[in-house]
Amino acid sequence: MILENRLNKAFDEMMRYRESIDYATATYKSSVPPFINFCVNNYPESDYITSVMVDEWLAYYQYSNNSRAAFISLLREYTKYLHFLGYEDFIPDDDYIVKRTAFNPYLFTDDELSSLFFTIDSYTGRTCGKRYLPEVVLPVYTRFLYCCGLRPQEPPAIRAEDIDLNTGDIYIRQSKRHKDRHIIMSEDMLKLCRLYDSVTGTRQWFFQKWDGTQYETSWYHQVWRNLTSKSGIPWKGTPRPYDLRHAFASRNLIRWIDSGRDVMELLPYLSAYMGHSELSSTLYYVHLLPEKLRKSKGIDWGLLSSIYGKEVPEDED
């Protein structure tokens, strides 16, 4: 009980501090508590987090390379905070660093997207409350990924006050690399958000559960497998929720090419909208286009190669 109380108390304090300075907490909340529970249940007499606990957790929980790297990064920050409080818990060192590898995004067909959104729009979940039902949240949450290109962890962090239902402006606070950005949603998306807001009423978080807390990324990932299965989309590690963000980028490029627009001129706008820190992260999507589209005159391959070269940016930027 001593270890459990100390670790959970310190974690809650760390989350409150991050929230007070508008830093993201969703990924911490979905990743670190399961590890804490593992340590408490398997080592109830221990006073500190040890390297053995970390090793056994990594053997128990089958992460992908990228997910493992993300978890180690979060755990390192948490255990550094424990050291700041004067405790001697183990901080994962460089031996735990895993080189991230680039994913090949899943490319949805038109039929798959139609089937997926039909499943989402007809979804019925189970909840103990009468408001903020999953079937009310899912259609809007998912369209934020596909229609606005948000990262899966960004919708849960949006507060009700962050969305201007008059102008369609969405304020994304302290997302990846602690960067803020403003984006404008489409008119259709704005109408959907107004309808959603009229159902959910006054609340702190735009996507808020019946108990007053925000929906978390982990909830969406749990529902995702069921959604893809019911949609008839085979799941073998992909598609992931992140692939809806990839679909947003690639389909915007296709639309520009089809309408004869200058893709190279528009790419910086897409990059800023998606919150990319480097243009190369946005240029990567050009390589995902069908070959006949990549040959479009709207793409300056000489300029692209001089900026982008042969590097593949880190996944999920």
Compact overview of the structure:
By secondary structure, this protein is mainly alpha-helical.
Layout: helices, strands, pairs:
Blueprint: H1 2-20, H2 26-42, H3 51-60, H4 65-84, H5 110-121, H6 134-148, E1 163-164, E2 169-172, E3 181-184, H7 187-200, H8 217-230, H9 242-258, H10 263-274, H11 279-283, H12 291-294, H13 301-308
Rg, rounded, reads 21 Å
Distance between the termini: 39 Å
Helix segment tally: 13
Largest sheet: 3 strands, antiparallel
Summed over residues and divided by their number, the pLDDT gives a mean of 83
Run of helices and strands = HHHHHHEEEHHHHHHH
By secondary-structure content and strand pairing, the structural class works out as mainly alpha
Cross-sheet strand order for the largest sheet: 1-2-3
Task: Estimate what percentage of residues fall within beta strands.
Answer: under 5%
The stretches of 5 or more residues where confidence is low (pLDDT under 50) are: 307-315
Shape descriptor reads globular
Query: Percent of residues in helical segments?
Result: 40-55%
The total of beta strands comes to: 3
